[in-house]
Amino acid sequence: MSVCIVYHSETGNTRTVAARVARETGGNLIEVKDLAGYSKAGMYLKGAPKAMRGEKADIEPAVIDVSGYDTIVIGSPVWAFNPTPAINAAVAALQGIEGKRTVVFCTSGGMPGRTLETVQAMLTERGAIVRGAVSFTERDVQKTEMVNALVDLVRPRPVSSV
Ligand SMILES: Cc1cc2nc3c(=O)[nH]c(=O)nc-3n(C[C@H](O)[C@H](O)[C@H](O)COP(=O)(O)O)c2cc1C
């Protein structure tokens, strides 16, 4: 089973989760960069209003071909209770997503708003099958049991016979 983890991260939390999922599943990481190149203030002053409006950023890579994978994981930071403009663009940039199993996660300060629901709806719109979603707070990022909950959605572990 091949896994691809597509994520955006400006301050490292979403990257940390993505890397741990990659390690546990043997998946490939694709980091999406927002070409706006925000400063910390810029993220709040310019990025957050764009996230609220559901806008798409200019991203690198501009095309994300996932046709060679069985399961696609999408990870977004929460900006103003929404997915980031980079993730809005990344979902639109996915090629070969139709009919694929997908799992969504977000990282936030504790108020994720409708981020997971929004990403799930975008993926469903693209013809993907959403298996589940996990919301991490900044503290959860380091918690093995939280990462395991996400990994279980990606790669169901065999039930122990003991
Ligand atoms: C512009 C901006 C807006 C944010 N908005 C929210 C929010 O609405 N709710 C929340 O709980 N955290 C919010 N946060 C905190 C981030 O979601 C949180 O730190 C997240 O883990 C960042 O992911 P990253 O380190 O991968 O970039 C915001 C952070 C930034 C920079």
From TrEMBL:
Species annotation: Methanoculleus frigidifontis
Alphabetized SUPFAM superfamilies for the sequence: Flavoproteins
Cited Pfam families: Flavodoxin_4 (PF12682)
Domain Flavodoxin-like: 3-162
PROSITE patterns: FLAVODOXIN, FLAVODOXIN_LIKE
Listed name of the protein: ArsR family transcriptional regulator
Signal peptide positions (record): none
